[in-house]
Design goal:
By secondary structure, the chain is of the alpha/beta class. It is built from 14 helices and 12 strands. Strands 4, 5, 6, 7, 8, 9, 10 and 12 form an 8-stranded mixed sheet that branches. Strands 1-2-3-11 form a 4-stranded parallel sheet, with helices on both faces.
């Protein structure tokens, strides 16, 4: 790393070497540490012992997982322990799902007093590419199938353990369409965005914990250049999934995918990739709120690395600025709130919040 960065100061940083497959090595990492930022995925395979150790030792924790199902099972296993030790466990602190989660928080806070958020729609204009680690996580999810879901959705539980009565609706678009056909007042071509499945789950958890929204309808779309390109991408994704999962073609199809440790070039990430996420919120009295967050480089990897690091620093150094001093499992917006907004989302970027008037 020192050679790659051409910076000898990297060599002065204390290094603790652990093997997450050997839990006995983890106390050396967490016992004298304020916060851990974990990036070693798939988290289903490598991350569980780190969460366990942090929960037991009272060490704050952030990670870049997009594995909401794994996060739920960590909650079920270690929520009570983290509450007792004061460990704040905040997963999904990268591109999954900080931009969307904090944007919904801003919408709620921008609405006039006494008005609740009832509908959210995001349009995502993102240029990027998947790394081998991301592909490995997706393949593991496909190959292992769905976990045995608990009787109670962990994401619907209030801080005191009661199940929330909030009704939350999310139906991802299957066929490319336009925003106007989806019930909005403009006509951008839109389609399915894979990460929306994760974002929708985490935002459900956030609005349940904050108890500020009404029954909420959540929508999220990927902006397409046109209907044809959106349909082509959707068909390609479906065919690729079939080829990978088919026993006859799976081995050969996987040889074409990047391996863990491989990914887009630094030049592409710095100069060709970007992310622009526009959110549209509607209150119970008809007020409309819009948010825009822009990443001028690769948000999936470069900014994800920044966001998870700043999340850990936020919990380690800005305790007095956090919305809660309690331990336990939180989302980025409920565990860090405005402290995260001041660093992880808009450090050099733009997050606009504006009350744009009443819906006709």
């Amino acid at each position: 790393l020192s050679e790659e960065l051409k910076n000898d100061q990297v060599l002065t940083i204390d290094t603790i070497i652990v093997d997450t497959t050997k839990p006995s090595t983890l106390p050396g990492l967490v016992k004298d540490t304020r916060a851990v930022a974990s990036t070693a995925g798939p988290f289903e395979k490598y991350g569980s012992p780190v969460v366990e150790a942090c929960a037991k030792y009272g060490t704050h924790y952030s990670d870049i997982t997009g594995e909401a199902g794994w996060n739920k099972h960590m909650m079920k296993a270690w929520q009570e322990t983290a509450l007792k030790t004061g460990a704040k466990i905040v997963s999904l602190c990268g591109s999954d799902c900080i931009p969307w989660d904090l944007s919904v928080m801003v919408m709620e806070d921008t609405l006039p007093e006494g008005e609740a958020l009832k509908k959210v729609a995001f349009v995502d204009d993102i240029m990027g590419a998947a790394s081998g680690g991301t592909v490995a996580t997706l393949l593991m999810g496909l190959e292992e199938g769905n976990r045995d879901e608990p009787d109670i959705d962990e994401y619907m539980l209030l801080p005191d353990g009661r199940e929330s009565k909030l009704k939350y609706s999310f139906v991802p678009p299957i066929v490319p369409t336009t925003m106007k056909e989806a019930g909005h007042h403009f006509n951008d071509p839109i389609g399915f965005f894979l990460l929306s499945l994760v974002n929708a789950a985490v935002i459900k958890r956030s609005v349940v914990l904050r108890e500020k929204s009404a029954d909420l309808v959540y929508e999220e779309y990927k902006r397409n250049p046109d209907f044809k390109s959106g349909l082509t991408e959707l068909v390609g994704l479906a065919i690729g999934g079939i080829l990978v999962m088919n026993p006859l073609t799976g081995y050969f199809a996987k040889q074409l995918l990047p391996n863990p440790g491989e990914g887009p070039s630094m030049d592409d990430m710095e100069n060709k990739f970007y992310g622009a996420i526009t959110g549209y919120g509607e209150g119970t009295r008809g007020t409309r709120v819009e948010t825009v967050i822009y990443f001028p480089r690769c948000q999936g990897y470069l900014d994800t690395a920044r966001m998870v690091t700043e999340s850990a620093l936020c919990m380690a150094l800005d305790q007095d600025k956090l919305p809660t001093q309690k331990g336990g499992f939180w989302t980025p917006s409920t565990g860090m709130g405005d402290a995260a907004l001041a660093t992880t989302a808009i450090d050099g970027y733009l997050l606009c919040r504006e009350e744009v008037g009443m819906i006709d």
